[in-house]
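so the lab meeting is tmrw and i was supposed to have these ready like two days ago... anyway. pasting both below. for each one the top line is the aa sequence and the line under it is the structure tokens. i havent really looked at them closely yet so no promises
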Amino acid sequence: MKNIALFSILTVFLFSCSKKNESFESFESSSNTESDPATIENLNIQTSAFTEIDSTGILMFPLQMGQNPTEDRDYSYKKMPDNGFWNIIFLNSNTNEYHLLTENKVLILDYNYNYNAEEGVSSSKKTDHIFYMMRSQDYNKDRLLNDKDPAYLFVSDKSGKNLRQISPANYAVNTWKYIQASNKIVMTATKDSNKNNEFDDMDEISTFEIILDHAESPKEVFGSELKDKLKKLYDRDWKKIK
């Protein structure tokens, strides 16, 4: 009887793990089946523009993808937003070596190696990093990456390697700045504070900082004591008079 009970528990555990992995894979790769050569043949890789990074000879090729309809005039792939990229190729034109920014599923909204500075900023304010605004989490579990999911701030080195997320999970980044004097990134980000799976003007916006060259998590700048004080002041001065 003990062996039967142990077998039953193990079966349930393995089944639950299998379902969990299946759910994860369905978002990451859209399908657990092998690729269909016929549908792959309908894809067209598009590298319509490229950028050189600070006269280094390293080129960035943002990737989009076109596709031809199948024989029944249908399309096999989800349409991506026109202003987004699904990956970036980095090419060292000096050596002809190249690599992808990532092999994870992401939607790249923007990339920046001038650090969000104003036009005409001196090159002395530059560091050896590239910043990216990306969507990488299916926050509302609809199996899509779109404007309903949070935008995160990522950073890599100037060659497009060592990519890592530097904004907090489950917060949608609104703005960010590189602060040269402290070598910090300061950012504002929206939390789904009312838990309706949306990031809108009803949610709380917090400020975070992270030291750029340190392997650390972003820290919230304004603590709970200040937040409580601000709420009390607002309540005192702006409450509707009955």
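ok protien two:
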Amino acid sequence: MTDLVEGAALPAIGLAGPDGGRIDLQTYRGRPLVVYFYPKDDTAGCTREAQDFSAVYAELQALGVELLGVSRDTPEKHRKFAAKYDLTVPLASADTDAALEAFGVWVEKKLYGKTYMGIDRSTFLFDAGGTLVRVWRKVRVPGHVDAVITAARALS
């Protein structure tokens, strides 16, 4: 597993889109991109984060910044999640371990004394050239989107 650090290039990986088609991250080159990884659809923290990103999605687009939320949930679960909460943020599925490993977000976690592997809530901001300019790891949801949009504004 790698730990993606500032200055690194946008990984050349593919994800499953909400319609079941493939999303190649390299197609985002030429404009800034925010990629955020979250553990699971329809859980309290993940729902709040998706709602917060949905609330600023139009502003990010106006700045020319693309946005993509990623979890291991299936495209079908993403569609249901988005419909249930009227989410506008685009969601993709890490349907292989390649994306999780490329971003270094597949980590050992502990809950109630049990150890398991899961996604570390993390956000990555790439500039238009595909260079990683900001990383947030072990994200706490309240206030996080404000920090991301402030950093995104600094790119324009």
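from a quick look at the 2nd one: Residues 32 and 128 are 4 Å apart (CA to CA). The mean pLDDT is 94. will dig more after coffe
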